[in-house]
Design a protein that fits this description.
alpha/beta; three-stranded mixed β-sheet; 32% helix; 9% strand; elongated
């Protein structure tokens, strides 16, 4: 049987390609398309044999699409028009132009692909762009299935579970028929969305509420950290060494953002979503790691607001907070150790590229279901 011919649109650093490999599907990526020069450098570094088209999708003609004669499309359109933290411009956002172009051109292909898989963020499922997608799928006679997934809930003992049973247990929003053509999944490890996969253990009696958090938020974090089906963060971390000093939070960030940080220990089983602004912006871009594991957060934060600045800083410094390294975030995304970045790509650029990427094991499992 001939390998599937796959077209990868919005290829980025190659998360879809990596997922395709890990799905053990017999396939060939006939073209990868992206305009991001830096992402293309990383893609070429990891998949040097794949034809890489550094052009806009709107710049690809119907004849060029037909010439590729692909069986499957994998795509991850820009999420900014749909993300909860953005303006939610939907189809009025210029960044959806290329996606609407794809929807227009697909029904006119000489040979329709057999399979489509699309990844985006929470918010896409209620967008006009999704409505246009479903209209195109109906026009072309596709059956489809949608998933809204959190990797915290499906990066759990995959080898021991039947795939269909796993998704029945973990999916919180499933629409359409069983033969899939669409999937929408939340990026990275994001505890703010997705099903509650916790062990339902209550917050310890007399638990101290520190930072600017509600009791509900504390309970959610406690539940997630007690879900033994999910790996601890320490399984994804690099060994501590002298180079780690560059990742420790600057003193001014500690003072300014102490009450806004999401602080996790290596024994935690959760983190917030790592965005492209991680390492540059502090608030809301991803968790920070407490490397002084024996220090209790309660002892640091209790009455800290009453202390003078120097003492406040001294207490916060005892936590030894640092950013996760790009390699660690790549690990959390499910990229294998052999996946790397060219030497010329800076740490800040790595964060940006990873923040725009996706979770490899999630997509690999979706591909397996799609072709199952």
């Amino acid at each position: 049987m001939a390998p599937l011919r796959v077209l990868e649109l919005y290829s980025g650093i190659g998360g879809m390609h990596q997922a395709l490999k890990e799905s053990c599907t017999s396939a060939e990526v006939v073209a990868a398309v992206d305009v991001n020069t830096l992402a293309n450098e990383v893609y070429k570094h990891n998949f040097p044999r794949t034809p890489l088209w550094a052009k806009t999708i709107e710049g690809i003609t119907l004849k060029e699409f037909d010439r590729l004669s692909f069986d499957m499309i994998l795509m991850s359109p820009p999420c900014q028009p749909f993300t909860r933290l953005g303006l939610q411009g939907d189809i009025s956002d210029p960044r959806t132009k290329s996606f609407l172009y794809i929807l227009d051109i697909l029904p006119r292909l000489q040979k329709l692909p057999k399979y489509l898989l699309l990844e985006n963020v929470k918010g896409f499922e209620s967008s006009f762009a999704r409505s246009e997608l479903l209209r195109m799928l109906a026009t072309c006679g596709f059956k489809y299935q949608e998933f809204l997934l959190s990797p915290t809930c499906i990066l759990t003992r995959f080898p021991d579970q039947d795939l269909e049973d796993l998704f029945k247990d973990k999916v919180i929003d499933k629409v359409g028929e069983a033969s899939s053509s669409l999937s929408s999944e939340e990026k990275n490890l994001d505890p703010d969305i997705g099903p509650d996969c916790s062990s339902k253990k209550s917050l310890p009696k007399g638990a101290f509420l520190f930072k600017l958090e509600t009791v509900k938020e504390m309970e959610r974090k406690h539940d997630q950290d007690n879900d033994s089906s999910i790996q601890m963060l320490k399984d994804f971390l690099e060994e501590e060494n002298e180079e780690m000093s560059q990742y420790f939070l600057p003193l001014k960030s500690l003072l300014r953002y102490a009450f806004l940080l999401d602080i996790v220990k290596p024994t935690c089983r959760r983190s917030t979503c790592f965005t492209k602004g991680y390492g540059h912006y502090v608030e809301g871009t991803g968790s920070v790691l407490q490397t002084a594991v024996d220090v209790q957060l309660e002892s640091v934060f209790k009455h800290i607001e009453d202390l003078p600045e120097e003492e406040k800083l001294m207490k916060l410094s005892t936590l030894k907070l640092r950013y996760f390294t790009p390699r660690e975030i790549a690990n959390l995304h499910g990229f294998p150790l052999e996946f790397g970045f060219p030497d010329k790509v800076t740490i800040k650029q790595c964060y940006r590229l990873l923040g725009n990427s996706l979770n490899v094991p999630v997509v690999a499992k979706l591909i397996s279901i799609l072709l199952g």
